């Protein structure tokens, strides 16, 4: 099974998003450095799913990582370093099997590879990543992540560290991620790859993940993540944070 793990939102200065998100009523904390990629982040959690506000601190390291096929770094470079939500990550507990299945489906597969980063408190976070795709794809697939340890233990650790706390804005959850695409067959393919139900509607398709909806709208000459809908807010509002629209709704 796959679940939404996180959104990758490139920004100029992740530390500034701690204050910006706080003004919206969202608890956001300093993350850490990815010393192998030249990036660093701040994090805003909604249970175990989260938004990663990520920035570059070493351009040379980042350029090296952007040469790796189907990585989020390559995606950001292809987008000419335009800030905003550029990719999503799905988590699973069977990442090795996922790699085998994707190869059988004919995709180019890289990984799983092991990574880690040091948190501000000195503890080390470990995970595996899997990237895949095919030549000529109009929208990069989600990348796949498997965290070390059980979800319950990880949630407890995140609460104890203060990374997860109640949001002033309410018991908010990431409800829907809206994509704009030239070809709606992209949604059909994602549903097939990850074994999700796909619902058809006029000029749109919705991929139904267990913990989030992915809505694909047909737009000429455009392929991107356009809007994030977050439900459970005590106050409805619409804001744009460095390239991506966030819609906060009560339901």
What topology does this entry show?
Layout: E1 3-10, H1 14-23, E2 29-34, E3 39-46, E4 49-56, H2 59-65, H3 72-78, E5 84-91, H4 95-104, E6 108-118, E7 124-133, E8 143-147, H5 151-160, E9 170-181, H6 185-194, E10 197-201, E11 204-209, E12 212-218, E13 224-233, E14 237-241, E15 244-248
Parallel strand pairs: 1-4, 5-8, 9-12, 13-15
Antiparallel strand pairs: 1-5, 2-3, 3-4, 6-7, 7-8, 9-13, 10-11, 11-12, 14-15
CATH architecture: Roll
Give the oligomeric state of the chains in this entry, treating copies of one chain as homo and distinct chains as hetero: single chain
The low-confidence runs, each spanning 5 or more residues with pLDDT under 50, are: none
Radius of gyration: 17 Å
Give the overall pLDDT as a whole number.
95
Strand content: over 45%
Please describe what this structure looks like.
The chain is an alpha+beta fold. The chain has a single domain (3-248), classed as 2,3-Dihydroxybiphenyl 1,2-Dioxygenase, domain 1, CATH 3.10.180.10. Helices cover 22% and strands 45% of the residues. The protein has helices at 14-23, 59-65, 72-78, 95-104, 151-160, 185-194, and strands at residues 3-10, 29-34, 39-46, 49-56, 84-91, 108-118, 124-133, 143-147, 170-181, 197-201, 204-209, 212-218, 224-233, 237-241, 244-248. The strands form two sheets. An eight-stranded mixed beta sheet has the order 2-3-4-1-5-8-7-6. It has a seven-stranded mixed beta sheet with strand order 10-11-12-9-13-15-14, with helices on one face. A hairpin with a 4-residue loop joins strand 2 (29-34) and strand 3 (39-46).
């Amino acid at each position: 099974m796959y679940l939404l793990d996180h959104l990758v939102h490139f920004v100029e200065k992740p530390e500034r998003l701690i204050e910006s998100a706080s003004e919206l009523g969202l608890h956001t904390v300093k993350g850490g450095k990815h010393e192998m990629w030249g990036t660093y982040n701040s994090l805003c959690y909604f249970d175990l799913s989260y938004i990663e506000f990520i920035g570059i601190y070493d351009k040379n390291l980042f350029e090296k990582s952007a040469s790796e096929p189907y990585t989020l770094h390559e995606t950001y470079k292809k987008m000419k370093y335009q800030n905003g939500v550029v990719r999503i990550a799905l988590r699973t507990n069977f990442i090795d099997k996922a790699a085998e299945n994707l190869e059988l489906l004919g995709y180019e597969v890289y990984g799983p590879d092991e990574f880690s980063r040091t948190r501000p408190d000195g503890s080390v976070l470990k995970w595996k990543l899997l990237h895949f795709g095919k030549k000529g794809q109009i929208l990069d697939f989600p990348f796949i992540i498997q965290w070390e340890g059980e979800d319950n233990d990880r949630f407890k650790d995140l609460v104890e560290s203060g990374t997860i706390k109640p949001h002033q804005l309410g018991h908010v959850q990431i409800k829907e991620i809206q994509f704009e695409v030239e070809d709606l067959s992209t949604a059909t393919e994602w549903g097939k790859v990850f074994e999700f139900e796909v619902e058809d509607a006029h000029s749109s398709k919705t991929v139904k993940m267990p913990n989030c909806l992915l809505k694909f709208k047909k737009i000429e000459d455009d392929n991107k993540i356009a809007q994030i809908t977050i439900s459970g807010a005590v106050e409805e509002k619409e804001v744009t944070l460095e390239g991506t629209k966030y819609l906060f709704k009560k339901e």
